[in-house]
Write a structure and sequence with these properties.
The protein is α+β, with helices and mostly antiparallel strands. It has three domains: about 230 residues, Glutamine Phosphoribosylpyrophosphate, subunit 1, domain 1 (4-Layer Sandwich); about 120 residues, no CATH class; about 80 residues. The chain is about 50% helix and about 20% strand. It is built from 13 helices and 14 strands. The strands form four sheets. The chain has a five-stranded antiparallel sheet with strand order 12-1-2-13-14, covered by helices on one side. Strands 5-6-9-10-11 form a five-stranded antiparallel sheet. The two termini are about 40 Å apart.
Length: about 450
C-alpha cells in the first residue's frame, strides 16, 4: 500500500510519497503480505520540463515495472514539451500502448478471461449443489437451465455497465476476433462437459470482449482472487509550457490490449485565480482527511449511517406508541413522518458539512494558498508522515513507511528534489551522475543544432 500527497498553490506543487510496497507471497497454501520499505514512487516525467509523476496501487503494468516505463518514456520524450499538462498525460497514455510486449498482453487477456470464466463456473456449480442437496438429485434439463441463466446474467451485467470512454465501440468485437482461438480453447477447458447451447457459447465469447472494455477495472467488476492483476494509479503534476499555474491529473490504468491502454482520468485539478489551493491524498488518505475535515472518514460514515437508521425507523416506533391514532390513518401518518424525517436528515447533513467546510477545510485551504514553496514541501511530507505514524501506532500492518521522497515543482525552478533516497551511495557512483548529466548536455546540444532551442 501507499500514502502520497500532492499540495498545489499559485507558487508551485509539492509531491510526497512513502517507500512501502506490499507484495503478496504464497506460503503454505495461503497468501501472506510481505512489506518492503525501499520502493520508488516519485519521479520526474521530463528531465527538462516542470512535470513530475507518482505511482500507487500496482507497481507494474502487466509485469513491467512502472519505474522502467517512466524512465524509458522520459528518454523518448527528450526535450519535447507540451502546451498543457493534459497533453503530457495523453502522450504518456498513448505511449503505454506500445511499451508492453504483445505476448504479455495476450497473457493478461488470458489470465483475466480464465478468472472470469472460473467465476461463472463456480456459480453454476454452487447452484447445482444446492438443488442436489435439497432435492436429492438434479436433472440434465435443470443443469442446462442453470448454465444458460448464469451465463446470461453475467453477459447482461457486463453489457449494462458503462463503456470505457476512451475505448472505441468496435473494440469488443475486435478483441473477440483477434483472440477467438484463445477464447474457444478456454471455454472448453473451464466449462468442460457442462451443457451449453450455441447462444451460451456466443455469450461467453462476447463476455471476453466486454470484460476489458467496461469503464470499471476488472477488480471492481468482480472483486476477488480470480484475477492476476489490479489497477495502477498515476498522478501527473506540474506545468504545461503555456500554463502559469500548476495542475494535477490522476489516472487509473488497468492494462493494455491490442494497442489500446485501458486508462481513464479520475481527477483533474487546476490552480486558478479563484482556486488558490488544492490538497489531494492518494491511496491511503484517511489521515489527510482527518487533518482537513476534523473527523475520520470511517467515523463520519458511522455517524451518517446511525442518523439515517434513526430517522428511517423512528416513524414506526412513534406510531407504535400512539395507540389513539386509528389504524386506517397510521399508514398516511407514517409516510408523512418519513418524508419529514428525510428533510430533517438532509438539513442535519448539510449543516454538518457546512460546519466542516467553515471550521476546517476553508481556513486550511486559505493558509495553504499563501504558503511559500519550502513550506509546501514540509506540509506534504508531514501529511505522509502522519499516515505512517498512525500505521506504526495501530495494530494494522505498517503498509505505509520507509523514507519519504519529496519534490517541489515550480514554473521558474522546474522539478527540484527536497528529499530523495538512493539505493546506492552517491560518493561511490560518480559515473552515474556523470552519465546522467552527459545525456542532458547531449540532448541540449542536439536541440540547439536543430534550431529548436527555446
Amino acid at each position: 500500500m501507499t500514502a502520497e500527497v500532492a499540495i498545489l498553490n499559485r507558487f508551485g506543487v509539492a509531491l510526497a510519497a512513502d517507500s512501502a510496497v506490499t507484495i503478496e507471497t504464497k506460503a503454505q497454501g495461503s497468501k501472506r503480505p510481505k512489506i518492503y520499505q525501499s520502493s520508488n514512487k516519485l519521479f520526474t516525467l521530463s528531465k527538462y520540463q516542470p512535470v513530475g509523476i507518482m505511482i500507487f496501487g500496482n507497481v507494474t503494468l502487466l509485469g513491467l515495472p512502472w519505474e522502467t516505463i517512466i524512465k524509458i518514456y522520459r528518454r523518448a520524450l527528450g526535450t519535447s514539451k507540451f502546451k498543457t499538462l493534459e497533453e503530457y498525460a495523453l502522450d504518456f497514455r498513448k505511449y503505454l500502448a506500445y511499451v508492453v510486449p504483445e505476448y504479455q498482453q495476450e497473457k493478461y487477456f488470458t489470465g483475466n478471461l480464465v478468472g472470469y470464466y472460473t467465476l461463472i463456473k463456480n456459480e453454476i456449480k454452487k447452484q447445482v449443489e444446492e438443488i442436489t442437496q435439497k432435492q436429492g438429485s438434479i436433472t440434465p434439463t435443470d443443469i442446462k437451465k442453470i448454465v444458460s441463466s448464469t451465463i446470461e446474467n453475467h453477459f447482461k451485467r457486463l453489457q449494462n455497465k458503462n463503456a470505457h470512454p476512451e475505448i472505441p465501440d468496435y473494440f469488443p468485437d475486435e478483441l473477440g476476433n483477434k483472440y477467438i482461438n484463445i477464447i474457444k480453447e478456454n471455454i472448453d477447458i473451464v466449462f468442460e462437459q457442462l451443457p451449453r447451447s450455441k447462444q451460451d457459447t456466443e455469450r461467453l465469447q462476447a463476455i471476453a470482449g466486454l470484460l476489458f472494455t467496461r469503464e470499471e477495472s476488472i477488480k471492481d467488476i468482480c472483486p476477488g482472487s480470480f484475477f492476476p492483476s489490479e489497477p495502477s494509479g498515476i498522478v501527473i503534476a506540474g506545468y504545461g509550457d503555456e500554463e502559469v499555474f500548476p495542475s494535477l491529473i490522476e489516472l487509473t490504468i488497468d492494462g493494455v490490449l491490442d494497442g489500446i491502454a485501458k486508462c481513464k482520468i479520475d481527477t483533474s485539478e487546476k490552480i486558478t485565480f479563484d482556486q488558490t489551493a488544492v490538497i489531494m491524498p492518494f491511496a491511503q488518505g484517511e489521515m489527510v482527511s482527518i487533518f482537513m475535515e476534523g473527523v475520520s472518514p470511517d467515523y463520519q460514515d458511522a455517524i451518517n449511517s446511525a442518523l439515517s437508521q434513526i430517522f428511517m425507523s423512528y416513524p414506526k416506533i412513534l406510531l407504535d406508541n400512539l395507540p389513539q391514532i386509528p389504524d386506517q390513518e397510521k399508514d398516511k401518518v407514517f409516510k408523512k413522518l418519513l418524508s419529514v424525517g428525510k428533510v430533517v436528515l438532509n438539513d442535519i447533513n448539510n449543516g454538518l458539512n457546512r460546519y466542516k467546510r467553515d471550521a476546517f477545510i476553508g481556513p486550511i485551504l486559505t493558509a495553504v494558498g499563501v504558503l511559500p514553496k519550502d513550506e509546501l514541501a514540509i506540509m506534504a511530507e508531514t501529511l505522509v508522515n502522519l499516515t505512517s505514524f498512525k500505521r506504526k501506532m495501530s495494530m494494522e500492518m505498517e503498509t505505509v513507511g520507509g523514507p519519504i521522497d519529496v519534490a517541489l515543482i515550480s514554473k521558474g525552478d522546474g522539478f527540484v528534489w527536497i528529499k530523495r533516497k538512493h539505493y546506492f551511495q552517491a560518493e561511490l557512483n560518480h559515473h552515474f551522475f556523470s552519465n546522467y548529466f552527459r545525456e542532458e548536455k547531449a540532448d541540449l546540444i542536439e536541440e540547439e543544432g536543430n534550431g529548436t532551442s527555446s
